[in-house]
Design goal:
Elements lengths: L5 E5 L3 H13 L3 E5 L2 H10 L4 E5 L7 H10 L7 E5 L4 H10 L3 E4 L4 H16 L12 E5 L2 E4 L4 E4 L4 E3 L2 H12 L4 E2 L1 H8 L10 H12 L10 E4 L3 E4 L4 E5 L2
Parallel strand pairs: 1-2, 1-3, 3-4, 4-5
Antiparallel strand pairs: 6-7, 6-13, 7-8, 8-9, 10-12, 11-12
């Protein structure tokens, strides 16, 4: 049976939930709509989805809190597209820092939302050619860390697991595949996300900041990902392939 993408819509505005849900259904997607974080948690306890459309401005736990919660739980790899009624760059920055994959400001055209959903789904499923893992899985070692390319998580020198979002994993793989080489922001955008989404200029900088936090890398004097002024970023350490992961 052909897979039909399942989209979970979390929004306290009933009219928006119904309009978006019906539009996506008419365009071949399966949809579930819920009104708040409590209903979202309840649904995800027993179900999996392909993408979550998550409103920021909700009573109780807002979308930013819920996105952070998703990124720390078993649904950490599920793409999140955030909605907000405020055209505020601060919200966009925080949303991306929390792990959102894309961002759309209300009011929006349903056709644009559908296009962004499809773009995010393509990005999360189709790694660029240099990131395709043809082997069963490898451990890539650098500094105090190892990256498990099968499970897509980090392991520190004590064996502690650090989960990565899909965007964080793709960016780290690009750096590990091109160690000690300066990569411009445009190159990083193309290699990790393509040009399908209308991402604003600071998206790569925010993603690098998130990845530094995962690596416990001091942004003032980074040991792993260094900023090259007016050029981009460079992963400064050598990378060793240890072999197949468990």
């Amino acid at each position: 049976m052909e897979h039909v993408d399942h989209i979970l819509i979390v929004d306290d505005d009933r009219e928006i939930r119904e309009l978006v849900g019906n539009y996506l259904k008419k365009n071949g997607l399966r949809t579930t709509v819920v009104a708040d974080g409590r209903q979202m948690r309840s649904f995800l306890e027993a179900n999996t989805v392909d993408l979550i459309v998550l409103d920021i401005m909700m009573p109780g736990d807002d979308g930013l809190q819920l996105c952070r919660e998703l990124r720390l739980g078993k649904h950490k790899a599920t793409p999140v597209l955030m909605l907000t009624a405020r055209n505020d760059e601060t919200d966009r920055i925080i949303g991306l820092e929390m792990g959102a994959d894309d961002y759309l400001t209300k009011p929006f055209a349903a056709r644009e939302l559908l296009a962004r959903i499809n773009a995010v789904l393509r990005r999360t499923r189709m790694l660029p050619p240099n990131l395709v893992v043809t082997e069963s899985g490898r451990l890539l070692a650098f500094g105090r860390w190892q990256l498990d390319t099968s499970a897509r998580h980090l392991l520190d020198q004590d064996g502690t697991l650090v989960a990565l979002s899909g965007a964080e994993y793709r960016l780290l793989r690009v750096f590990l595949d091109h160690p000690q080489r300066v990569l411009s922001r445009d190159q990083l955008l193309n290699l990790t996300q393509g040009r399908e989404a209308d991402l604003f200029d600071r998206s790569i900088d925010l993603l690098v900041s998130r990845l530094r936090q995962r690596l416990l890398d001091d942004a003032r004097e980074p040991a792993y990902i260094k900023t090259v002024r007016s050029e981009g970023y460079v992963f400064s350490l050598p990378v060793e392939i240890l072999g197949a992961s468990a």
